[in-house]
Design brief:
Elements lengths: L1 H9 L2 H21 L5 H15 L9 H5 L9 H6 L1 H4 L3 H22 L5 H9 L1 H9 L3 H13 L4 H14 L5 H8 L3 H22 L4 H15 L6 H7 L4 H24 L3 H15 L12 H7 L5 H5 L14 H20 L12 H22 L1
Helix pairs in contact: 2-8, 2-9, 7-9, 7-10, 10-11, 11-13, 12-13, 12-16, 12-17, 15-16, 16-17, 17-18, 17-20
Length: 384
């Protein structure tokens, strides 16, 4: 407590200015400069909730809507149900509430990770992926909070498993968090993730209708076919460099396999924070469609491994040179990829104190308790 008070006294007016002005700046950029606000929410999420509310299919979209990237809903049943309450409200009101939740989730994510350096809150607000996340109104920022909660409760199998199941059910591309549970030998948490995920999705599809499974798969495939050349994904980069989609898919599989092996390697060596970083990189690499705001998930391993302002946080600001939307050029996608690789390398070079801590499993605690009871009993016998 005394340390925290000293840090508050040492805080400069510039720190306070950055902390207050960063979110204000991003709001101005969103509403005035880019003339857009919660586009994904208004054109896809809210519409899907409305359709489900009135008994229609949330997966009925035209080819023209799919090609625009913001006018389709290629998500499973659970997200469609989540947006039904928002569909009860006028679109503008619902969008404002949703964006407020997105904004708050960034600060709460850092709070959950026990980040006390206020400069990091300002830097997080200035991250371009975070700004794009607010602009689009996508659910990625909330997934970042979910990832932080999984880390915070990683030694509570039921909580970590349930959070993992919910995240994957909302956006399947975050499946590597399940691999991370296995890599760090959290077998019970992984088991809870599978069990609760199966139950959750069965219930969600029962509400939406099992007949909607095929339209969902078809829509997701059509969206991928229409947009695989866009964004920052491995396939998009390969196509921009002159390779075909098949070659890009092959590169994606090879890179994803290498990252999966690296995640397991770090996890087995009890470097669980480093393994989580690789798992997030795997989410980005293995996704056939990769948008700017997906990189916001890197805030979680950043905050774990570097809880104070550092060169890695500043290096990440270089992605300001890369726009969101569908206007990326070849050099911008390559710059984005290089920035992620460079930051990952810098974070892994120096071992974090967290990586020296062995996770305490419930079985370990039980064995320790049994050993204590046995030692006490033996000591009593000798004393007698």
């Amino acid at each position: 407590m005394n340390l925290a008070r000293r840090q508050l006294r040492q805080r400069s007016p510039l720190d306070d200015a950055l902390y207050v002005l960063a979110p204000v700046f991003t709001l101005v950029e969103l509403i005035i400069v880019r003339h857009s606000f919660a586009v994904d929410f208004e054109h896809a999420y809210w519409v899907a909730g409305q359709r489900l509310l009135h008994g229609a299919s949330p997966y009925a979209w035209t080819h023209a809507q799919i090609a625009s990237a913001v006018n389709a809903f290629p998500y499973p049943a659970l997200p469609a149900i989540v947006f039904v309450p928002f569909a009860l409200l006028p679109k503008t009101v619902a969008a404002s509430i949703w964006v407020a939740l997105q904004m708050g989730s960034v600060a709460v994510t850092l709070r959950v990770l026990q980040v006390r350096d206020r400069r990091l809150y300002a830097l997080a607000f200035l991250w371009w992926p975070v700004i794009i996340g607010w602009q689009t109104g996508n659910m990625t920022l909330l997934l970042g909070l979910g990832l932080a909660l999984v880390w915070r409760h990683r030694n509570r199998p039921l909580v970590a498993g349930l959070l993992t199941a919910v995240m994957i059910s909302l956006k399947p591309f975050v499946w590597p968090i399940g691999l991370w549970l296995l890599a760090t030998r959290r077998w019970r948490a992984a088991g809870w993730a599978v069990a609760t995920g199966a139950a959750l999705n069965l219930a969600a599809w029962a509400i939406v209708g099992f007949g909607q499974v095929r339209p969902y798969i078809h829509l997701a495939s059509e969206v991928t076919d229409a947009l695989y050349r866009d964004g920052y994904g491995v396939i998009a980069i390969a196509v921009r460099l002159g390779a075909g989609r098949t070659a890009g898919t092959a590169a994606l599989v090879v890179l994803a396999a290498a990252l999966a092996v690296a995640c397991i390697w770090f996890g087995r060596r009890r470097r669980e924070a480093a393994a989580l970083l690789i798992a997030v990189d795997l989410m980005l690499v293995a996704s056939p469609l990769l948008w700017n705001h997906y990189f916001e998930l890197l805030i979680v391993p950043f905050a774990i491994l570097r809880p104070r302002a550092s060169r890695e946080w500043l290096l990440a600001l270089i992605v300001w040179l890369c726009p969101g939307g569908l206007q990326e050029t070849t050099w911008e996608t390559l710059l984005f990829a290089v920035a992620v690789v460079a930051v990952t390398w810098l974070l892994l070079r120096r071992r974090s104190p967290l990586d020296e801590q062995r996770p305490i499993a419930i079985s370990d605690e039980r064995r320790a308790g049994q050993a204590y009871v046995l030692a006490t009993a033996q000591g009593g016998e000798r004393a007698g």
